[in-house]
Amino acid sequence: xQAVSREEVKVGLLNIAxxxxxxxxKVRTRQFALDCISLVADLPKSKTxxxxxxxxxxxxxxxxxxxxxxxxxxxxxxxxAKLSIVLEEADECAYWLDLIIAASLLDxxxxxxxxxxxxxxxxxxxxxxxxxxxx
Length: 135
Hints:
CATH superfamily: 23S rRNA-intervening sequence
Oligomer: single chain
């Protein structure tokens, strides 16, 4: 996706710098979802692989979708509520990815970068929620 200029960013509840970060996170959560979707396709077709894959798909698609919804929130409480969902779902993704590694469902090297991204997104959204709660 092409970056937008400052003039094109809709600010809403955020200042320009925060809006640019929000745009970057939209792109980042989308790429995270695409990476996880590819990973799920490579899981074994066993019952375990299917169950964990289904759970991971549910949580990973929720991260980006709820983040986009949060960015369109009409109020601070609505924004905070959506951001809390994003945080929970990002952390849940990290959990399922950790299980994939621990159960050796896929090679660790294939999963580790996506797992680390899930942890990083969790930290970003936890910090964002904390910042919102302090306002």
